[in-house]
Amino acid sequence: MSAQGRAYPPAALAWSIWGLGALLYLIGFYQRVAPAVITDRLMADFSLGAAALGNLSAFYFYSYVAMQIPTGIIADRWGPRRLLTLGAGIAALGTALFAFAPTIFWANAGRLLIGASVAVAFVSMLKLATRWFRPEQFALASGIALFCGVCGGVVAGVPLRLLVESFGWRPVMMVTAMVTAALCIAIWLFVRDDPSERGYISHAPAPAAHAAHHASVWHGLVQVLSYRNTWILVLVPIGIAGSVLTFAGLWGVPYLKQVHGLDTKTAAAITSSLLIAWALGGPILGALSERMGKRKPLYVITTVVAMIGWGIIIFVPLPIWALTGVLIVSGFACGNLIIGFAFAKESVPARLMGTASGVCNMGPLMGGMFLQPGVGWLLDRNWLGSTVDGARVYDAAAYQAGFTLIFACIALSLVLILFVRETHCRQVA
């Protein structure tokens, strides 16, 4: 079709279409950390111990991790509009199933559906960004995407707890399902895969470069896994990002309540500050590594800071103001996972960057997948038998034993980073 009389899409339209995808990512992040402020209700309603509760929360991560590589393939073949619509629809169904779950089996099934469905959001957003935005706006869109995710995490803190205290967790989750269903309809009605479908010129690059490799996705995956850096950079975030997802996403609120005597809203506010520091640390540390022209030194230094910070939190008795400060510093240092993403992309040839990003994005989510139930298992092993309103209560020694697993994983991450080959911020030939 001739481009005569056509223009690039207006900014308002482009951001609106992209923004609907961003809303699903926000909801996904909200669902990721929502169990943290309703641990007492879930334990009481389903008669759960810490290990079972950790497993319930981690069902989100089981399916999310499993969907990382297939999502990229499906997005290429279906397009972001259909993928986002299907994702939002299944997320609404999973949330409704979770809200009405009569037993832990159905609650687990709901969380499994939620994780699998919202896993499509981030990749679909990036695909929309390549077509609706100018190339120089892609980094901005990626940064705003991460900001949207953290906003979802903040909403799952104090605001969610206030709503749960007023209406109960099941009605609140049912409303969440209705909002997600409305988003599903809005995506189908308004989102388009490419500006050409609205009569505008697309910003998409020429497809020829991708077409040659489209049929060899699995061959590309095998090639990516043949690079030593890939394996290391998948494993490193398990401890680093897993510490934040485990503390802010599940065990931080009950720990602050039961060990430090805080109310749920104050505890949720503190864990939200950890998420915000984590979000700020990512782009700042990523930009700093670019200025240094090296990835490895800053990755090592910030991991050392994170390990020391979590060591202080776990093993040193602190007043709550000092604990909050150390949590913020540790969260900021754990934002170094952005360095890891750049590291991974540069460690393979340019034609494999997308596959490498998908593979390495599994690492942070595996942190939540392993550590949330792992900490819960250790809490149950050290439980003294106390309960309040049907929910188990753990003492400081039990939490210290559970959180020691976080510290051990970060220490292992630090050791692994030492074996990564430096890329000097340049793409491997």
Give a description of the structure.
With 429 residues, the protein is mostly helical. The protein folds into two domains: 10-195, Up-down Bundle (Growth Hormone, Chain: A); 217-429, MFS general substrate transporter like domains (Growth Hormone, Chain: A). The protein is 76% helix and 1% strand. The chain has 20 helices and two strands. The protein has helices at 11-33, 39-46, 50-66, 68-78, 80-100, 104-118, 121-132, 138-155, 158-167, 169-190, 208-214, 217-225, 228-258, 264-292, 296-315, 320-334, 337-346, 353-360, 362-381, 396-417, and strands spanning 387-388, 391-392. Strands 1-2 form a two-stranded antiparallel sheet. The longest helix has 31 residues, at 228-258. The radius of gyration is 22 Å and the shape is globular. The protein starts with 10 loop residues before the first helix and ends in a 12-residue tail after the last helix. 50% of the residues are buried. Mean pLDDT is 89; it is low at 208-215.
